Amino acid sequence: MTYPSDPNRPEFAFGARARQSPYFERARSAGACMYTLYNHMVMPVSYGQPGAEYDRLMNHASVWDVAAERQVQLKGPDAQKLAQMMSPRDVAKCKTGQGFYTPILNKAGGVVNDPILLKLEDDLLWLSIADSDVRLYAMGLADAYDLDVEVSEPDASPLAVQGPKAEDVIAHAFGEHVRDIRYFWFIQTELQGIPVVLQRSGWSKQGGFEIYLRDGSRGAELWDIIWAAGEEIVGEPWGPGAPNAIERIESGLFSWGTDFDEQNNPYECGLGKWCKLDGEHDFLAKAALIRIQEEGAREALVGLQLNAGEPLPSVTKPMPITDASGAVIGTLRASVWSPRLNKNIGLGRIASAESGLGNTLKADLGSGVVEATVVGVPFA
Ligand code: THG
Known about the structure:
The protein has 380 residues and is of the alpha+beta class. The protein has helices at 24-29, 50-59, 79-86, 134-144, 166-174, 219-234, 245-251, 286-295; strands at 34-38, 41-46, 62-65, 71-75, 99-101, 104-105, 111-113, 116-121, 124-128, 150-152, 157-162, 186-191, 194-199, 208-213, 239-241, 299-307, 319-322, 328-338, 343-351, 360-364, 369-375.
C-alpha cells in the first residue's frame, strides 16, 4: 500500500487533534466528501451536490453534522459571573431554558467568539462556540480572577435539522409539544432513551432545530432516528446538508474567523446591536467599548453586490476592496453566487466613511476587478 492512495489527492490524518464527530461514520455513508476543521473537530461542508443541498435547505429539510459547534461549560457558583465578564449582554436577563446570541469580548473589545449562551441552570451555562478556543480564554479568566467555576468541554454534540419542513421532522420524532419551543429556547429531554438538549436554533434562516446529543457513543443511533423521521415526513427530497455558504451570506449570518476575529471590535463587524453599555451589568470590555463608541468605529461590515453578468467563483480568502481612486479601503471576506437573487453577493469590511448604502466600489477578485455596490443585509 502506498500513501496517499492517489498522489494527486493528498489525504488528511484524523486523530486526537483533528477529532471525529459522533456522526462521522453516518455522514460519510451519506456522502460527505469535503471537510473543514472547526474547534479541533472535522466537520462536513459538502456532500458533493451543491444544487440539491441548497434546494433541501430552502424548500424541504436536511440534517447536518454540526458536532464541531462544541460547548464550553461553565459550572459552579461563579458561572454567571464569568460569562458576564466576557459578554456585553446582560446575562442575568437570560432565563433558564433560554439561549442568547452574544459576542465574547476581551478587555480591548476584541471579538474572541460569537457563541449562543445556553442557561441550563443558574450555575450551569454552555457557550455553543464558533471556531476559537474560548475554553482556554475562560480558564485563564477563572484562574486570574480566582473564580469558583469549573470550565470544561462537556459531551454535547449538536445535530441540526434545517429547512422549512424541519419543524415537522422534529415534531414527528419528538412529539407535537416541540412546536411550542420559542426561538433559541430549549428543553432537556430524551429521544428513545438518548439524552439530548433540543433547541430551536441553527445556522440558517430557514427555520429548524439543533439536537445536542449528550452521549457521544450514541451518534449513529440518533442520526438513524432523525434520518428515518426525515424520510417519512419529507420523502424523496430529504437528505444530508451542511452549514451553507450561500444561504448564510444571503441571510447575513456571521462566521467568526471568516468575517472577523479578535482583531475587530463588535461595532466594526455588525455585532454592535448586542452590546449594551447602559445596563446594570458590567463586563471586561465595557470601558473599551465606550471609548470606541466615542471615537467611532473605523470599519463597518457591509453587504456587497458584485456586478458581473455571470456567476463568479466564490471568494475563499480576503480580497481587497478599493475606492474609485484605487486606494484599498477594506476587504471582501466571502462571496457566492446566489441562485435565489441571480446575483453575486458577498460580505466585506470597509472604511466606515465608505459604507453608505449604494456606494459603488471595486473588488479585486484576483481573476479580475468587478464593481461592488454596498447593499443592505440580509440581501433582498
Ligand atoms: N448553533 C449552535 N452553535 C453554534 C452556531 C449555531 N456555534 C458556532 C456558530 N453557530 C456561532 N455563531 C452564530 C452566529 C449566528 C447565529 C448563531 C450562532 C444566529 N444568528 C441570528 C442572526 O444573527 O440573525 C440570530 C440572532 C438572534 O436573533 O439572537 O443564529 O448556529 N448551537
